[in-house]
Each structure stands twice: as structure tokens, then as C-alpha cells.
Specification:
It is built from 10 helices and 22 strands. It is of the alpha/beta class and 474 residues long. The protein folds into 2 domains: 325 residues, Alkaline Phosphatase, subunit A (3-Layer(aba) Sandwich); 101 residues, Arylsulfatase, C-terminal domain (2-Layer Sandwich).
Length: 474
């Protein structure tokens, strides 16, 4: 028979005691952290205040003051799709077959077997969304909603891949703006992109404030063509590129404001970075990588070393500068560890857990013996510690650069077997290979290990641990 009240009140008292024991325990259970990645497009190393830019970026300055700033943070390749593939999968892009910048005619994309950060975090109950540029395949089978994201709104590839391109060798079709898996508009008003992505990000945070979430905001800007909303149009008189950066800084501020409003500051790790260096071919519509050498489309550090700032009040140091080498591929294993999720164990993952670096643990060092600079499948350089060895290769240099939304022309240059000490020669100008033959030999040995693993098209070598990209299902 059911229990009911007794004269002594024993049962209600017992229930009260039991509940008083368990309810506080449930309330005190630690919440899983939120993660926000803000990934801008073609922003140079020297384009924001924390990296000595004259452009006013108060919100990014605040992010740096309240968090950590990396000086030696790398993307995997100096071009859009390859870079994004590495961020989201924790792998060198040539390991998973994603190279260059996929265009509207590409029949490849991210393979269905690859696990993105979003897919890994979904196993822990995370809400996931991407608002911005995807660039890992535009057909439905490649879209974010098939790769761990609950929501998607944005452009499936670069914003210059549209009919208004000033110098396309082949006319592009209308540029689709996609929501979920449906094109809702073509050739959208690009002056509204940064605003639209920011508004979506704010609403997503508010909607999911009571559960763990992963928010990925890969802005199209400041990739050409450059656009700003009316909020920042007046500032374009000081240079359109600087106005675009100011609006991106505004977007960061809106996201930080929303976290504060919803009491999520201490629950959220925010990461800001760029997908590669500046596209110097566009002259005054490009940013700056100074004092680094060259920019996008090269394996000099100006192409692959990017600004990166992380903030998590109460969990990581304030105002700390991290001079150890780290990279976008490290984000997946690091977030997985913080969320208690499993990194895929049935495949090679190149990224490492860098939480000891981020959290300021005493004596923390980079977990990487080496970083390998690939251009597509061609191994062009190796870095280990402060040493960077260029293997003989050609590279492109604007000659002359363009201006006002029109590209210039590239000339081809050559570099031989050259060694640089990046601690004392960040601009890669003084070749000291003859002075350090032992260092050259050690880095050449590391290069050989990478060729065994990932291959090298220059030597017609196939890597032993590479996986195919996804192919369009006709």
C-alpha cells in the first residue's frame, strides 16, 4: 500500500532529510565549460592592438589583458580550407586530404569519417553552432549540420567566390547564403555579414546559457572583398581595411558583453585567432604581418603565424604572454580534455593538449618537437624550438601588389636550404645554415620523418598515414 502521513510525521521528515542531502550536491555539480572560437579570415599578425597595430581594437585589447596572448601560434597551412580543416579536426590538412581553397566547382569536402570539434563535444551533450564561413565543402553531405553542428548560418566558401570577382579566370556562380542546409539568399549584402553573424552568436549564447555550448564564429572578414556596415562606414575614411578590423573588434565586444550579462564569463573559454596571414596581393585591402616575412600563400611565418588570444576568467592567467609554439591543431584535443570527451583513438591526431601552457602551469613547454610547413602536399620547411629550416622551394611574392579591391600580380622567387634563428631573426633574413650544420642535419631528419608520415609531393613520396577527403556522391 502507498506510504502516507503518520501521526509521528516520520515519512515527511525522512524525505526532508534525504532531499536536504542530495539537492545541494546536485546544485554543486561542476558545469561543463562553454567554448567560443572566433576565427577571422586573412588577418595579419600585426593587425590588432595586442600585436602593436595602430588600429583601435579595445575589445581585443581587453581580451588580451584578461587572458593569454600567444606570440608563436601557427595555422597548419597558409590558405583557407586547409587551415580550417586543421582547426576542426586536429590534423594536418594533407593528412585528411583537404588542400588549398575549395571553390564552387569542387567535388571534395570533409570526409564523413572525420570528427570535428563539434562532433567530439556532442558526445558530452553540448549545443553546437557555426555562424560564418565553412569552406570544407558546400554540397549537403559536407555541410556543418552533417559534421556535429546543430545550427549553421553563413557562406559555404570565400566571399570573393561570386560573380563580382574582379579577376576570376572562370566566372563564379551566385554566392549562396545558407541556413541549415538550405540556400536562403544569393549574393547577399556583404556589409551585413559581420553583424548577422554577431547577432546569431548573441542569440545562441542566450538560448543555451543553462547548458554547455560550443560556438564557432568564423567571420568572412577581413578577406577581400572588404565590407563594413553603416555603423563603421565613417571610419573607412582612414582606410577600409582598418574599418573592417574595427567592426570585427565590435563583434568580439558584443560576445563578451553577452557572456557577462548571462553570468557566463567564468564558465567560458574564448579563443580568437586568424586562419592565415594577410593576402598581400591586394595591397591596401590587405593587412600586415610585420615583423614577420611575407604573407598568405607562403610558408614564411607571415603566412602561417597568426594572432591568437584566449580568455577564461578565473581559470587562466591575466595578461600573460606565451612564447612557446602552439597551433590550431591543438584546439581539438585541448577542448576535448576540458570537456571530458574522448579524442578519436582509431586515427592519427596531430594536435596536442596545450592546457598546461594556457593555464600557466610552471615550466610548461610546447608539446611539439616540430612543426611542419606544408604547402598542399609539398613539405617546404621545419621548425623545432627556435630553429626554422627552409627546404629548397619556390614561393610567390606580390610584384606589384594591387589596390582598392583589385589584386596585383605574383612573381615567383626561390629559397634554398636556409636556416633561421627565429628568436633573434623573426623576419627570416639571415641564413645561418653554414654556422650550424648539426642543427640543419637534425631538422632534415625530422623532415624525413614527416615525409614518411605525410608524404612530400616534391619528392613524389606518399605518406603512410594519410586519409582521403570526402568525394561528392553523385
Amino acid at each position: 500500500m502507498p506510504l502516507g502521513p503518520t501521526r509521528s510525521g516520520f515519512v515527511p521528515v525522512l524525505l526532508t532529510v534525504v532531499l536536504s542531502f542530495f539537492v545541494p550536491a546536485l546544485r554543486s555539480a561542476p558545469r561543463l565549460p562553454n567554448f567560443i572560437i572566433i576565427f577571422v579570415d586573412d588577418m595579419g599578425y600585426a593587425d590588432i592592438g595586442p600585436y602593436s597595430s595602430k588600429t583601435k581594437t579595445p575589445n581585443l585589447n581587453r581580451l588580451s589583458r584578461e587572458g593569454v596572448r600567444f606570440t608563436d601560434f601557427y595555422v597548419a597551412q597558409p590558405v583557407c580550407s586547409a587551415s580550417r580543416a586543421a582547426l576542426l579536426t586536429g590534423c594536418y590538412p594533407n593528412r585528411i586530404g583537404i588542400l588549398g581553397a575549395l571553390n564552387p566547382f569542387s567535388k571534395q569536402g570533409i570526409h564523413s569519417n572525420e570528427r570535428t570539434i563539434a562532433a567530439v563535444l556532442k558526445t558530452r551533450g553540448y549545443a553546437t553552432a557555426i555562424y560564418g564561413k565553412w569552406h570544407l565543402g558546400f554540397q549537403p553531405q559536407f555541410l556543418p549540420t552533417r559534421h556535429g553542428f546543430d545550427e549553421y548560418f553563413g557562406l559555404p566558401y570565400s566571399n570573393d567566390m561570386w560573380p563580382k570577382h574582379p579577376a576570376a579566370s572562370r566566372p563564379f556562380p551566385p554566392l549562396p547564403l545558407i541556413e541549415g542546409e538550405r540556400t536562403i539568399e544569393t549574393d547577399p549584402d556583404q556589409s551585413q555579414l559581420t553583424t548577422w553573424y554577431t547577432e546569431r552568436a548573441v542569440k545562441f549564447i542566450e538560448k543555451n546559457r543553462d547548458r554547455p555550448f560550443f560556438l564557432y564564429v568564423p567571420h568572412n572578414m577581413p578577406h577581400v572583398p572588404l565590407y563594413v556596415s553603416s555603423k563603421f562606414a565613417r571610419q573607412a575614411k582612414h582606410g577600409l581595411y582598418r574599418a573592417v578590423v574595427r567592426e570585427l573588434d565590435w563583434s568580439v565586444g558584443e560576445i563578451l558583453k553577452t557572456l557577462k550579462k548571462n553570468g557566463l564569463d567564468e564558465e567560458t573559454l574564448v579563443i580568437f585567432a586568424s586562419d592565415n596571414g594577410p593576402w598581400l596581393l591586394y595591397g591596401n585591402h590587405a593587412g600586415s604581418a610585420e615583423p614577420l616575412r611575407e604573407g598568405k600563400a607562403t610558408t614564411f611565418d607571415g603566412g602561417v603565424r597568426v594572432p591568437c588570444i584566449m580568455r577564461w576568467p578565473g581559470r587562466i592567467p591575466r595578461g600573460k604572454v606565451i612564447r612557446e609554439m602552439a597551433m590550431t591543431m591543438d584546439v581539438l584535443p585541448t577542448l576535448a580534455k576540458l570537456a571530458g570527451a574522448e579524442v578519436p583513438a582509431d586515427r592519427v591526431i596531430d594536435g596536442k593538449d596545450i592546457w598546461p601552457l594556457i593555464s600557466g602551469q610552471p615550466g610548461a613547454k610546447t608539446p611539439h618537437e616540430a612543426y611542419f610547413y606544408y604547402w598542399e602536399r609539398h613539405l617546404q620547411a621545419v621548425r623545432s624550438g627556435k630553429w626554422k629550416l627552409h627546404l629548397p622551394h619556390s614561393y610567390v611574392k606580390p610584384d606589384p601588389p594591387g589596390a582598392d579591391a583589385r589584386p596585383g600580380k605574383y612573381s615567383e622567387r626561390q629559397i634554398g636550404l636556409e636556416l633561421f634563428d627565429l628568436d633573434n631573426d623573426i623576419a627570416e633574413r639571415k641564413n645561418i645554415a653554414d654556422l650550424h650544420p648539426d642543427v640543419v642535419a637534425r631538422l632534415q631528419a625530422l623532415a624525413e620523418q614527416s615525409r614518411e608520415d605525410l608524404g612530400d609531393s616534391q619528392l613524389k613520396r606518399e605518406g603512410k598515414n594519410v586519409r582521403p577527403a570526402g568525394q561528392l556522391e553523385e
